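Researcher: Please predict.
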Amino acid sequence: MFELSQTFSFDAAHTLKRKVSAEEAAGSRRIHGHTYTAEVFVCGERQAESGMVVDLAVLRAVIAEVREQLDHHFLDEVAGLGAPTLENLCVFIYARVHQQLPQVSAVSVSRAAGDRCVYRPA
């Protein structure tokens, strides 16, 4: 079994309603932005004719479609995302990629502050 991954970045703004102290939540409630890094993993056996799990050009093209929906957007308004949390970003990216590449096995999303979430569906 092989696992390939492709990483991409996007910049986006959002707000978050958090249940923490008022002073800690204040910055999250205002519109603010981050540079996110996402990694999409595909898992499977090599195809006999190509020797690849999936052609990386195909994976990059699918990712480009997803990136277009997120990059330089206000995440609060992205249809189907829900609250713009790392968790929801992982699920959103996974669902969009899975529609075209069922071999997707996991998605991770991180921000420069060191926060990271990994989604591996059961």
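Model: The two ends are 18 Å apart (CA to CA).
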